[in-house]
């Protein structure tokens, strides 16, 4: 089977041009930009904050235990721990809850934006309500995937440093720590690439299948996995094709940003404003995956053939002829 990569890209660009520029409507840009903001920005909303400050003192450092002698801790020794411990725990819990909310919003927003690209129609409330079961199913699947991926990476980290520590204790040479550390880095890099590949397959192909056939996330994966196994090489090349496309896009963004004395960078990092400014890229990328998937048969065709048709202009009804004036010549 001949699989094209440039053909879907050309059709995706044509779809973006038809939706955004024929004709140009500011309200379409603003509404679709908000849908892209929901779909993209909130999907990456998992905040990462480090609490790695080293403690320089405490009730059991230079206080209660001094040269092996025990002394009863005073209230002023315990007070910092009583304050900072719950505060840090509360902030971590708040960050986790915020990440879960962002993940839910992003999962719901993906179907809102996909419908706007599929139908060439800018709307938020109606698709948000109608695709709610699909968005909730996607959210639960992604939440489970994030948890499993995080546990896998933590397991690699602990196993790597534990093996390195055992090597150092056994040989008392730092060189003994090198093999397990190198092996852990390689394994973590491979797992990271696998996680990224699954993310691309989910957003570009599984989500469109969920939308097209009204499937839950697990059902859509069961429909997509046989195709993925049969054409694994083509889908790997698709992921590499996305990396190749990202290079000129990043270069163009850097050129515009530096040529405007970094004003362009400031616009792009502002939430929602950046999505509106780069909306043609967002629309074209959202259309690329379904256009590529449609090559594998009618079952996998998400869009109708060709760019979405614009609403036809209502015909002008001719005015009825004026009634004859009595006594006027015919």
Kindly summarize this structure in a few lines.
69% of the residues lie in helices and 1% in strands. The protein has helices at residues 6-21, 26-41, 75-119, 125-130, 132-171, 178-213, 217-230, 232-259, 263-269, 273-277, 279-293, and strands at residues 65-66, 69-70.
What report would you give on this structure?
The structure is a single chain. With 330 residues, the protein is mainly alpha-helical. It has one domain. It has eleven helices and two strands. It has helices spanning 6-21, 26-41, 75-119, 125-130, 132-171, 178-213, 217-230, 232-259, 263-269, 273-277, 279-293; strands spanning 65-66, 69-70. It has a two-stranded antiparallel sheet.
Give structural attributes.
two-stranded antiparallel sheet; mainly alpha; 11 helices; globular; 330 residues; 2 strands; single chain
Topology diagram in text:
Elements: H1 6-21, H2 26-41, E1 65-66, E2 69-70, H3 75-119, H4 125-130, H5 132-171, H6 178-213, H7 217-230, H8 232-259, H9 263-269, H10 273-277, H11 279-293
Antiparallel strand pairs: 1-2
Helix pairs in contact: 1-11, 2-3, 3-5, 3-6, 5-6, 6-7, 6-11, 8-9
């Amino acid at each position: 089977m001949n699989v094209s990569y440039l053909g879907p890209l050309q059709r995706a660009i044509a779809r973006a041009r038809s939706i955004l520029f024929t004709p140009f409507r500011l309200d379409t840009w603003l509404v679709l930009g908000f849908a892209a903001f929901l779909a993209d920005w909130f999907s990456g909303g998992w905040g990462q904050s480090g609490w790695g400050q080293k403690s320089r003192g405490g009730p059991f450092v230079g206080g209660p235990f001094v040269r092996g002698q025990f002394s009863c801790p005073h209230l002023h020794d315990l007070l910092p721990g009583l304050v900072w411990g719950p505060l840090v725990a509360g902030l971590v819990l708040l960050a986790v809850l915020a990440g879960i909310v962002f993940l839910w919003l992003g999962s719901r927003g993906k179907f809102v934006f996909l419908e706007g690209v599929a139908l060439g129609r800018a709307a938020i409330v109606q698709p948000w309500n109608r695709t709610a079961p699909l968005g909730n199913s996607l959210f639960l699947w992604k939440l489970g995937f994030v948890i499993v991926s995080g546990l896998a990476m933590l397991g690699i980290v602990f196993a790597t440093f534990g093996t390195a520590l055992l090597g150092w204790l056994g040989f008392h040479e730092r060189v003994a720590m090198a093999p397990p550390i190198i092996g852990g880095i390689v394994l973590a890099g491979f797992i990271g690439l696998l996680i990224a590949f699954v993310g691309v397959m989910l957003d570009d192909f599984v989500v469109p299948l969920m939308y097209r056939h009204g499937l839950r996330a697990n059902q859509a994966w069961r429909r997509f996995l046989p195709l993925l196994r049969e054409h694994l090489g083509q889908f790997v090349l698709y992921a590499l094709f996305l990396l190749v496309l990202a290079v000129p896009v990043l270069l163009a963004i850097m050129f515009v940003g530096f040529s405007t004395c970094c004003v362009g960078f400031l616009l792009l990092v502002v939430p929602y404003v950046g999505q509106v400014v780069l909306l043609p890229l967002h629309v074209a990328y959202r259309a690329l995956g379904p256009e590529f998937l449609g090559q594998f048969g009618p079952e996998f065709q998400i869009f109708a053939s060709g760019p979405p048709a614009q609403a036809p202009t209502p015909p002008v009804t001719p005015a009825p002829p004026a009634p004859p004036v009595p006594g006027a010549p015919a």
